[in-house]
Amino acid sequence: MLVNKYRVFGAVNDWARPGCEGKYGGIGWYRIINPLRKIGAYVVTGEFRIGTMRSAISLKKTADIWVFSPMADVEAMTLVRANAMFTGAKLVMDVDDDPFSVDKEHPGYAYHKAHEQDMKFQLKNCDAVTTTTEELKKVLKKYNDKVFVVPNGIDKSIWKLKKPKKRTDGRIRLGWMGSGSHMADRIVVEKAIKTIMAKYPQVDFYHAGMCLVEGAENREFSFRGTKGYEEYPAFLNKLDLDIAIAPIKDTQFNRCKSNIKWLEHSMLKTPMVLSDVTPYSMVKHGETGFLAKTTEDWVTYLSLLIENPEERKRIGENAYRSVNQNWLIEKFLPRYEKMFEWLTKKPITVYTAISGKFDKLIPPTKTKTANYVAFTDQKSEEWVTKKPYGNFHDRRRNSRIQKIMPHLYLDTEYSIYLDGNIELLVEPQVLIDEFLKDKDVAAFKHPGWNDIYSEGEAIVRLGKDTKENIVEQIKEYSKQGVKQDGGHCECGVIIRRHTKEVAQMNEKWWAEYCRYGVRDQMSFTKAFPIEKVNQIESKQGVHTHPYFKVHPHG
């Protein structure tokens, strides 16, 4: 059992199925209720609605990740998404069918057709999507890049059932467990079943929701099924089927379905004949089941199983072993953990701030370990560009505020600031690993000065600020005990871990910068005590370091 370290909440939306008294279907059980409970998540199994921001804040105290099945309409999704964004929660939607390829004969065709745009909206507005198969993933990736395949897994605990007393009536029970949604699939097997019933008078046909045999008096048994999935294993076990079938048409919609029927019947060691289509491609023909393409195939394989009790036993036992080896839920739980880790892991963000045309935005080196963000009015296909700050009359402050206080603008765990003329030549993760070490801040040791006093003299000498400003700043820092030869950093590259303490130092830096002049390196040293900063050693600072290329300004 995994620990709910990622603080996950799950809610299923099929609580209102007509006539089901609030009980859940198999989809809710397999996709949300059972797996999320297995990892210790908080799962709601009754009606659930988020009505206000206040209730969202309350939920956020319990969970950082919210997992839902598709919602009834755009309004519901908009509300939940707004609440998630307000609290910073991540939203995951689970989809188990292709909502865009529903067959016209499907009872839900009209509904799905009318809600296609709603579904696209929901997919696009989730942080991630979970689904059952690789085939369905291909469909969903058109609308969301983050699709995680988590197959349906069997929970052995609900299939530990006492086998019914052995029958001695000589009857063979053939069964098809389906719902009204499978009515269109009758055409696949209808002729074969009629042939089998006529050929073998000892065969009885048990089904849920299907009616295939007209005139098979006293040999056809129809069931409504169960109101909730919690009742289904016992119901199926009580039927005591000798053979089960799973016919489905080879359509786009059905190709995206899972192998759940084979899994469930196999747990009761019931041999199966199934349509030879994508969902059942894992069935080894003649070993863990039989795959049929034509009416003749169906008749052949059903006849084989009807006439050979030992063959029924062999196939059933093989299928049972296969499910237990490859399809138990415990095997797939780590996939949830992988997804949750991705959702909660904040990226490295490489960023720059360019106000005006002092520097031209340099295309970044392609990387898989970071996001690239530029606060600039320049356009770029390689950087994510965000609006630069523009409320200060002094344009230098406009470009400095985002440099100095990235915690206000970036949702990230690590940031790497680059001056507009500096190009990073290595993966950003390299800088995090090599330069931060046990510190939360890293910057290059200034190649020319070892304290703010030498820096101040150079600023005045080069005309970068007025003598009055610099003298005032130096006097104040001297009173506050800033030492000569106490260490000094240049600020063309700054690597930060976004902790609360670093945010406080950022804000102190901004206060110091606004108080004195227009240069930021002197105030950096005051705001970030040298013992808090890992100083990167380089002969000429960033200019000669092999990880960077410094371009001319302009």
Describe the structure.
With 554 residues, the protein is an alpha/beta fold. It has 3 domains: 8-150, Glycogen Phosphorylase B (Rossmann fold); 157-331, 3-Layer(aba) Sandwich (Rossmann fold); 346-550, Alpha-Beta Complex (Spore Coat Polysaccharide Biosynthesis Protein SpsA, Chain A), CATH 3.90.550. It has 19 helices and 21 strands. The protein has helices at residues 26-38, 53-60, 74-87, 109-114, 116-124, 134-140, 186-199, 232-239, 252-255, 260-267, 295-307, 309-326, 329-344, 395-404, 428-436, 452-461, 467-479, 500-515, 521-527, and strands at 8-11, 42-44, 65-68, 90-95, 128-131, 147-149, 172-177, 203-208, 220-223, 243-246, 272-275, 290-292, 348-354, 370-376, 384-386, 414-418, 422-424, 441-445, 489-497, 533-536, 548-550. Helix 1 links the parallel strand 1 and strand 2 (42-44). Helix 2 (53-60) packs across helix 3 (74-87) and helix 18 (500-515) crosses helix 19 (521-527). The chain is elongated, with a radius of gyration of 33 Å.
CATH topology (level 3) name of the largest domain: Spore Coat Polysaccharide Biosynthesis Protein SpsA, Chain A
Task: Give the CA-CA distance, first to last residue.
Answer: 58 Å
Total E-strand runs: 21
How would you describe the shape?
Answer: elongated
Query: How many strands, which pairing sense, and closed or not: the largest β-sheet?
Result: 7 strands, mixed
> How many structural domains does the protein architecture include?
3
**In the CATH hierarchy, what is the architecture of the largest domain at level 2?**
Alpha-Beta Complex
What does the oligomeric state look like here?
A: single chain
- Low-confidence blocks of residues: 210-215
Our estimate of the beta-strand percent is 15-25%
Share of helix, binned: 25-40%
Query: What is the name of the CATH superfamily of the largest domain?
Result: Spore Coat Polysaccharide Biosynthesis Protein SpsA, Chain A
Structural class: alpha/beta
Number of helices: 19
Give the averaged pLDDT, no decimals.
87
Mind telling me the CATH class of the largest domain?
A: Alpha Beta
Write out the strand line-up for the largest beta sheet, numbering strands in chain order. Answer: 15-14-13-16-19-18-20
Alpha-carbon Rg, integer: 33 Å
